[in-house]
Design brief:
This protein has 289 residues and is of the alpha+beta class. The protein is built from five helices and 17 strands. Strands 1, 2, 4 and 5 form a four-stranded antiparallel β-sheet that branches. It has a three-stranded antiparallel β-sheet with strand order 3-14-13, with no helix packed on it. Strands 7-12-15 form a three-stranded antiparallel β-sheet, covered by helices on one side. The termini are far apart.
Length: 289
């Protein structure tokens, strides 16, 4: 009698396939037959890759902690860029934004009406009353991580402080919808519902993204998606949630001089927080914040 050849699982666990991801693959195929969009194996991170991403994310968090402990009125956004570069490099990492598709700096600093992709400058000083997003992305050992935080500088107007606080609530509303085998559109629906409750708008064209082995991977995380839409979230996927919440219109303009900086079309404030998450068998793990 011919003995079946046993093979190891594609995920790199070292287990035989039938004892590891066979049932997982059967479930994926069943969802695909039902018309759901499902991820390929290339989006499912192996145990080794997840550990590498965790190490990168740990450094990313440390960089943002360093910024948080030093940021204050009177410094330039160029100085924040220097902090990020020096801390990252001194700990064995590389700032992922530096030279990425021509981006000239190591970090994005987006102030007041800048939605995202603000370029640090020695001429841009933080003033009392400003709100600022600092978006840090790190490569460590070939693995990518990404997260951002908002900072209130001094005596911030209450409407802007509320925007900063409520933008985080919107992100957390989306976070609560991360469940294995659920559509990623559930995340966007929760975020947009939360923003609408506060009277804010959500930028549609720019969203979260898969990350880990590259800076930007599938899936695109639409923060205005409808529940039930989009790719299924399955254990082993890693992506960011980073809604851009605007005080006024969701529309924006792109700076023609540098091709990067995005501002609200009406000049009103924008706020953004970004978390990097891993989908697990029971829910999710926040890797970077």
């Amino acid at each position: 009698m011919e003995v079946p050849v046993r093979r190891y699982c594609w995920c790199g666990s070292g287990k035989y396939y039938e004892n590891c991801h066979r049932d997982f693959d059967i479930r994926l195929k069943a969802f695909r037959r039902q018309g759901f969009r499902v991820p390929g194996h290339d989006l499912i991170k192996t145990p080794e890759q997840i550990e590498g991403i965790r190490r990168s994310a740990k450094l990313n968090v440390e960089v943002l902690d360093y910024v948080a402990s030093n940021i204050r009125a009177g410094i330039s956004t160029e100085e924040i860029d220097r902090w990020v570069y020096e801390y990252t490099v001194s700990h064995g990492g590389i700032p992922a934004p530096l030279h990425y598709e021509g981006f000239p700096k190591s970090v994005c600093t987006s102030r007041n009406d800048v939605v995202c992709h603000g370029i640090p400058s020695s001429k841009e000083l933080l003033l009392d009353g400003d709100i600022l997003n600092v978006d840090v992305s790190t490569v460590l050992g070939g693995y990518f991580s990404d997260s951002s935080r908002m900072f209130c500088i001094g005596n911030v107007p209450q409407a802007h402080r509320n925007l900063v606080d409520n933008a985080l609530l919107c992100l957390k509303a989306g976070l609560s919808q991360i469940k294995p085998w659920a559509p990623i559109g559930n995340v966007g629906q929760a975020i947009s519902d939360c923003a609408r409750k506060f009277g804010y708008s959500v930028v549609r064209e720019i969203g979260g993204h898969g990350i880990g082995l590259a800076f930007h991977e599938e899936p695109f995380v639409d923060h205005t998606a409808k529940a039930g839409a989009g790719m299924l979230m399955v254990p082993g996927m890693v992506f960011t949630i980073e809604p851009m919440i605007n005080l006024g219109t969701r529309r924006f303009t792109i700076d023609r001089r540098n091709g990067w900086t995005i501002r609200t079309a009406d000049g009103k404030a924008s706020a953004q927080w970004e978390y990097q998450v891993l989908v697990t068998e029971t829910g999710y793990e926040v890797l970077a914040w």
